[in-house]
Design goal:
Helix content is 21%, strand content 43%. It is of the alpha+beta class and 145 residues long. It has a single domain (2-127), classed as START domain (Alpha-D-Glucose-1,6-Bisphosphate, Chain A, domain 4). The chain has a 7-stranded antiparallel beta sheet. A hairpin with a 2-residue loop joins strand 3 (45-50) and strand 4. Helix 1 (14-22) crosses helix 2 (24-30).
């Protein structure tokens, strides 16, 4: 496995961050247009959708609301593990939370751009806007056109 980690301080409480990480209505606004769904309990299924296409499935490994969330995402056709994402949330002062994102991927998979993910999350929570442009419209197969 290849591992990368980064952290950023965000002007939000751990509870607000937890909601942004676990609410499908929010993930699509800051996570490159992906909707992430789960019951967010250990062992629960995780699904990642791009539009209506299920692009990854996986499982929750750790869910310790509102301080730690770890889940894995698998390639839905083969079941091969694509990556593990770990989120650690620690309030460093009232209303400021240090977010550490760790991404573990297989050597043959492209690396996860954790700096961009954290930047998008920070921008969304602090300004209500997207840092990234929305992804292109999905074609008939559900994949980007």
């Amino acid at each position: 496995m290849r591992s990368a980690a980064a952290q950023v301080d965000i002007a939000a409480t751990p509870a607000t961050l937890w909601a942004a990480l676990t609410s499908p209505d929010q993930t699509r606004l800051w996570l490159s247009g992906l909707t992430i769904t789960s019951a967010w309990q250990p062992g629960a299924r995780v699904d990642a959708y791009y539009g209506s296409a299920n692009i990854a499935t996986g499982a929750v490994v750790v869910a310790d609301e509102p301080s730690r969330l770890i889940y894995r995402l698998d390639e839905p056709r083969t079941g091969d593990i694509d990556c593990w994402l770990g989120w650690d949330l620690k309030e460093t002062e009232p209303g400021i939370t240090r977010v550490t994102l760790t991404a573990d991927t297989l050597p043959h998979d492209p690396p996860v751009d954790i700096i961009r993910i954290l930047s998008d999350l920070k921008t969304y929570l602090e300004t209500g806007r997207r840092l990234s442009h929305p992804p292109p419209t999905a074609g008939p197969s559900g994949q980007p056109a």
